[in-house]
Amino acid sequence: MVDPFRSRLLFAVADSKGRGVSVRRLAERLKEPPRKIRYHLEVLAGQGLVGVAGHGKRRGVVENYYRAEVVPAIQRSEEVTPLAWRRLSLNVIRFIFDDVTSALAADREERPSRFDHHQVRVPGEVDVAGHRELEEIHLRHLREVEAALGAAEARLKRSGEPSIPVVNVLLLFEAAGRFR
Q1: Within a domain: residue 94?
Q2: Residue 112 has pLDDT above 70, yes or no
Q3: 3-29, pLDDT tens digit by residue?
Q4: What is the DSSP string of 105-170?
Q5: Quick check: 34 pLDDT over 80?
Q6: First and final C-alpha spacing in the chain
Q7: Number of domains into which the chain is organized
Q8: Final residue belonging to a domain, choices 83, 108, 135
């Protein structure tokens, strides 16, 4: 995950959920050559982060469809240098920013008007215990989001209604004394 390209690739693969995504689609989304995508998918597969979800044929060629084997939730590790951690964090923020700008740029006429974007920004100051509490909230939120997504996927399979693509983001970071 410290490698900037691999973290972007893992997030792109994770977006496909269990369905899987082809090298061709990943190359289109990330605007990178398929050869580079294949190479880095092999590395991620060797680390147990991605796997093959299935196979399909396109123009007589068999394509692998890849899925994420883990949710790419990133927590600070003592094994990662501060510089590598900053780079990884910036990469994740760029990916989130791409998601947000794409959503805001989309033609609203193509979407149901009952759905909108929801944003919350809560600055504050905490002690060490407060920071740990916020970290626990993030982990609990991740579990709740995964459960809600799983339940929604099951309902979609039963109902056959069209799906609504969403991205759920929760960030916690030290604001560098900005509020003092």
Answers
A1: no
A2: no
A3: 778 888 988 898 876 678 999 999 998
A4: HS-GGGS-TT-------------HHHHHHHHHHHHHHHHHHHHHHHHHHHHHHHH-PPP-------
A5: yes
A6: 33
A7: 2
A8: 83
Whether residue 140 is contained in a domain is answered as yes
Picking from 68, 83, 98, the residue at the C-terminal end of a domain is 83
Clarify whether residues 4 and 71 are in a common domain: yes
157 falls within a domain = yes
Rounded CA separation 142/173 (Å):
16
Which range marks the domain in which residue 164 is found? 121-180
Q: What average pLDDT does the chain have? A: 82
Percent of the chain exceeding pLDDT 70 equals: 84
Q: Which residue has the tokens 């994420």?
A: 68
Ramachandran category for residue 60: left, alpha or beta (phi over 0 → left; psi -120 to 50 → alpha): left
Q: What's the CA gap between 71 and 142, in Å, rounded?
A: 9
Query: Same domain, yes or no, for 76 and 141?
Result: no
- For 99-110, what is each residue's pLDDT tens digit? 788 777 776 556
Q: What pLDDT, on a 0 to 100 scale, did the predictor assign at position 2? A: 64
What would the pLDDT profile of 82-95 be if each residue is shown by its tens digit?
A: 787 777 778 778 87
> What would the two tokens of residue 118 be?
């929801």
CATH number for the domain including 22? 1.10.10.10
